[in-house]
Design brief:
The complex is a heterodimer. The relative contact order of chain A is 0.33. Chain A is globular and about 40 Å long. In chain A, strands 2, 4, 5, 6, 9, 10 and 11 form a 7-stranded mixed sheet that branches. In chain A, strands 1-3-8-7 form a 4-stranded antiparallel sheet, with no helix packed on it. Chain A is mainly β. By secondary structure, chain B is mainly β. Chain B contains no helices and 11 strands. In chain B, the strands form 2 sheets. In chain B, strands 2, 4, 5, 9, 10 and 11 form a 6-stranded mixed sheet that branches. Chain B has a 5-stranded antiparallel sheet with strand order 1-3-8-7-6, with no helix packed on it. In chain B, a hairpin with a 4-residue loop joins strand 7 and strand 8. The termini of chain B are far apart. The relative contact order of chain B is 0.34. Classes of the chains: A mainly beta, B mainly beta. At the A-B interface, strand 5, strand 9 and strand 10 of A face strand 4 and strand 5 of B.
């Protein structure tokens, strides 16, 4: 079974802090994604990575950066956390060779609160 | 730009009822259409994936259909149970990309 894990289920940070959210997958997937999920807005793609050290902006990259130094790990960084970044953050991964027949595998999510 | 819409936003039914959740998408150039389930405060679990060349997929009491020409997909749940209560999300996979575009979900409550 594919497993995607996220470093924290719940996180509380102060405005202005630098925040790291970590995601690890154990299936050697090339593609990894970071989403945020907010009531009434659904899931929105922040960043994705299609290989080590490769990244592309999603729909809402402002205020975020990412790091992919190893294939299995994809980190989301909030350089200076703000209250409007309070949200549920979800990580996902999928193989590049999956074609049209496989799905993205999601982690359990990190509920981040910025005070 | 692909847009995915789900109607209704919320649905409450008595146990045992058959029900249909709707999903529409604006760009028919999709690789596949996927349905996920999300329990409160949790991640997403994949339910069904319909490839662009397929018309439907079935898993147990769930049946998903795809009509690319009309830009619609439905998720049929037979003999609903309280354990089916969750938010159901559909997502379209864009042609040539592993990226997904999600609808906002339908929150289903099945009452005992």
């Amino acid at each position: 079974d594919v497993k995607v894990t996220q470093s924290s289920r719940y996180l509380v940070k102060r405005t202005g802090e630098k925040v790291f959210l970590e995601c690890v997958q154990d299936m050697d997937h090339e593609n990894m994604f970071w989403y945020r999920q907010d009531p009434g807005l659904g899931l929105r793609l922040i960043y994705f990575s299609y290989d080590v050290k490769m990244k592309e902006k999603g729909d809402i990259p402002e205020g975020y950066s990412v790091s992919r130094e190893k294939k299995e790990r994809f980190s989301l960084i909030l350089e200076s956390a703000s209250t409007n970044q309070t949200s549920m953050y979800l990580c996902a991964s999928i193989s590049s060779s999956s074609g049209i027949s496989d799905t993205q595998y999601f982690g359990p999510g990190t509920r981040l609160t910025v005070l | 730009k692909q847009e995915v819409t789900q109607i209704p936003a919320a649905l409450s039914v008595p146990e045992g009822e058959n029900l249909v959740l709707n999903c529409s998408f604006t760009d028919s150039a999709i690789y596949n259409l996927q349905w996920f389930r999300q329990d409160p405060g949790k991640g997403l679990t994949s339910l069904l994936l319909i490839q662009s060349s397929q018309r439907e997929q079935t898993s147990g009491r769930l049946n998903a259909s795809l009509d690319k020409s009309s830009g619609r997909s439905t998720l049929y749940i037979a003999a609903s149970q309280p354990g089916d209560s969750a938010t159901y999300l559909c997502a379209a996979s864009q042609g040539g990309s592993e990226k997904l575009v999600f609808g906002k979900g339908t929150k289903l409550t099945v009452n005992p």
